[in-house]
Amino acid sequence: MKRIICVVGPTAVGKSEMGIAIAKHLKGEIISCDAFQFYRGLDIGTAKLKSDDWQGVNHHLIDILDPNESFSVADYQSIVRAKIDELHQKNMIPILVGGSGLYLQSVLYDYRFNGEKRVDDSDLAKLANGELWQLLFSIAPEIAEITDHNNRRRLLRAIEIARSDGDPFDGFGKNKFYESFEIIGLEMPRTDLYKAIEQRVDQMFDFGLLEEVRGLYDAKVTGQSIAAIGYKELYQYFDGIRSIEETVALIKQQTRRFAKRQMTWFKNQMDAKWYAVDKADFKSVIEKVISEL
To answer: What are the pLDDT digits (tens) for 60-71?
Structure first.
């Protein structure tokens, strides 16, 4: 049986560290499943590990795009399935690590992108692309986070799915694309998770997040990449919309909300084996996961 292992959970819970530990134990390689770590130049705000911190484990799909490029779920599905086949041919175990649930599902399940052209609904035709994205974000933030602001067809299709009756992701979960895969979920008590998130945001600013985003802003980078939490809020700060203190508080708030949505997504959409994380003793969590692989 050719194994595929996935590590999922909310932001700041320790997925990257767990993925590396599993990869070292099983002699595997990591495939990123973080929608914004694909982009070069988005390093601090996406908590992207530097290659020096990979501990000798190969990582794939990190820094593969310029920040102005678009990247769809269908693109990800195609590239990752090819990468999984490549690693299996080398007798290596692919380990998918990240918090972008829709990307992961598109790989693991038999979801097909038909590319059918859609016609504007009468109530949407009058909206600009930015307004469509804001509407999508209000309905389905998980999808909005990974949908190109400037691709009208994809925006309309995403809104159509999000507005549909019944399960908006009915195409997922019915049939597995791969015969077998293992999903490891990491979770923390909400108060502990929120504390970890706030500490991470503070560290990001200490490490130079403000300067990183300023460089993108000055270079007039727009589109999908700067939809990431931390980037869009700081763009608004540079536009003079709010103070830096208000911006930092908003980034923390948005990250907490995103983490909550991630947990809801993974709990409802994916059959994971969940492990409780104690940040003070993460080594014991790693040992428990590895002992049960």
So the answer is: 999 999 998 888
